[in-house]
Structure formats: C-alpha cells, structure tokens
Amino acid sequence: MSQSRTKSGYIIAAAFIGPGTVTTASLAGAQFGFHLVWALVFSVLATIVLQDMAVRLGFATGKGMSEALHHQFRLPWIKYPLVLLVVGAIGVGNAAYESGNLTGAALGLNNIVALGIGPWGGVMGGLAAILLWRGKYQLIENVLVALVAIMALVFVVTFAVSEPDWSGMLSQITDPVINTESLTTILALIGTTIVPYNLFLHASLIARQQQEHSQPASEYRRQSGIAIGLGGLITLVIMATAMQTFFGQADALNAGNLPAQLAPLLGPYAEVFFAMGMFAAGLTSAITAPLAAAYAVCGALNKPTDLTSVWFRAVWGIVLVAGVVATLTGTKPLYAILFAQAANGILLPIIALLLLYMMNTHPQLGALRNRLTANVLGASVVALIVGLTYQKLFA
C-alpha cells in the first residue's frame, strides 16, 4: 500500500488538533482537572462514529458530503436552503474559525518575538496560502502530518517525564462534573473535537483518494478510527499537562503562561518549544479550515472541487483573508478561541442530522448504509449535544 493511500484519517486528526484544541484542553485541565475527561471521551467516540459515516458516504458516492446533498435533493425548496446552510455554516463559519487558528498560532510565536498577534497572523496566513496555492495534495498531506507529529511529540514527551499524579487523575475521572460553570468548557471540548467541517472534508478526501488509489472501505474506516483515537489521546495529554501545572494552584492559566505546561521537561526553553507546538498546530488548522470550506462550498454550488480550479481557490482565499483580517482586530485571543470551539458545538447537531439522513436514504450506499447501531449512536450524539446546548443557552 503506497503512502498516498494511508493518510486521509490523519488529515482529520490534523484538522482538529489545532490551537483551539491546545487552548481548550489546557483550560479544561487547569480549571477542572480530569473531572471533564468524560466530555473528551464522549467527543472522541462521537467523532469516530460520525467520521465513519462520512468515510462511507465518500466511498460509496464518490462525492463529498455537500456534493451528495446537492445531487440527492432535487426540489428547489429543499435544495436551496441546504446550499445556503452549507455556504453559511461551513464557508462563513470557517472564516471565523480561521481567525482562531491564526490567532492561536500567533499567540505562541509572539511569546518568542513580540511582533504582535496581527503581524504573526499575517505570516501564518501567508504560509498557508502558499501551500494551498501550489495545489499539490500530496504536499499538503505530508506537511499536515509532519506538523501534527511535531506538536504531539512535544506534549507527549513532556507528560511522560512530568511525574503525573496517577491516583489524582483516576479519582477525578471517576468523579465527573457537569454544572453551569463547566458547560461552556464542555461544549468547547466537544466543538474542538467533533469539528463540523471535518465531515465535509473527510468525505471529499475519501472520494478523491478512491478515484486515484482504489482500496476497500474497511481500510479507510479502520484508519479513521485509529487516527481519531490518537488525536483524542494527544488532547488528553494536553489536558493532563495543564492539570499538573495549574489545577488547584494559585496561578491561573492565561495567554501569557500557557508555555508553563512544558516547564517540567524543558525549563527555560519551554516557551520556545511551546511556540513551535502552537505554530505546528496553527498551521495545520489554518490549512484544513479553508480547504474544507472550499470542498464544501464548491460541492454545494456544483462547482469544480479540483485544488487548482478558480472557484476552489477563490473560496479558500476568501476564508484565509477573512481569518487574517480578524487577527488585526485585537480580540482577546484565549476567549476568542474558546468561543469559536463552543460555537462549533452548537452548529454540530444540524450537520450531524443531515449526515444521518443521507446515510439512511442515499441510493448509492448499498451495504454501507447505516444500520441500527450506527443510527442509535448518531442520534444519541445529537441528543446529548442539543441537551447541553439548551442547558447552556436557556437554563
């Protein structure tokens, strides 16, 4: 099996392990210790379930999710509202999400060279634009996987040598917390893991890879589960490093002391290594958010999804420019990132319901159509997220 056939699942892991994940998991660990691990475990399992549906949809139809919706719904009164939803929720939404990616990465780099969040955001946006403009999928894929590996190595090695309090972590895992104070963080953990645009991105990547390198659906599904599980493990490690440093301590986690999580291993070099980790995480998400938006919007509008087409480049260019501009507004980065993740958690049920409908009705699915177990799991995910969101907004 060639390498080009084995990385689509890891691209999805790369997409959700961004500055938002680092920030949200760090805040969760610092403020609530391991009492919110249940929310992370739920998020990872839900992501595996939903992304598996996206894999099967892309494999069976040879199209991305928005393309499949476009062709399945023929009646104008259904079709056009769905197009508006995809363009608004994924296209416009990803532009806002992009600002969090660039801001988070700029936050880390600014701790080394104080150019300011705005200028660093512009640099990051420029790097992402160069890579996307090249239109070389294999290059994009390799860069994303390498960047995530760099970030993961920093946190995993740090946690391994930081003398973790295993008994304390275990006692908190078995004492889960859900209350008014924790709901925003819970929704943010869900939103940073079960990223709505990844459903569109994954189906498109599978359809593309299946056209170039045919292989069994089971291989894509297996790799998706493994990659997402590893991404969840990395998120757990980030939460644990913040817990070790900040939970129950007088010092509170803020934008200035995020690098302190790495101090047990790296000492005075912690700031430099954390900046590199945030740079790697930020660039992965700064690439995948515009990429996913381009696949989703072009598919919904029935436009070419080739990486070098004018429409495709226009969509990702608009998303990227909007993200760069947003970094110049001076919004407090830590809370902007947390809010973006919580907004993702609110958007997710709508996208998940559309996917569930597709997985039960699309005529091309055949044996890959949802069975009872997948429907129950998918409906349970939607119900819990809706319940948490309702509690947050109206309780």
From TrEMBL:
- A single BP term in Gene Ontology: iron ion transmembrane transport
Is-annotated flag, keyword Transmembrane helix? yes
Kindly list the places in or outside the cell where this protein is found, as annotated in its UniProt entry.
Membrane
Q: Name one GO cellular component term.
A: plasma membrane
GO molecular function (one): cadmium ion transmembrane transporter activity
TM annotation in the entry: 9-30, 36-59, 80-97, 109-131, 143-162, 182-205, 226-247, 272-298, 310-328, 334-360, 372-390
Give the way it sits in the membrane: Multi-pass membrane protein
> One Pfam match, by short name?
Nramp
NCBIfam families membership: Nramp_1
Q: What is this protein called?
A: NRAMP (Natural resistance-associated macrophage protein) metal ion transporters
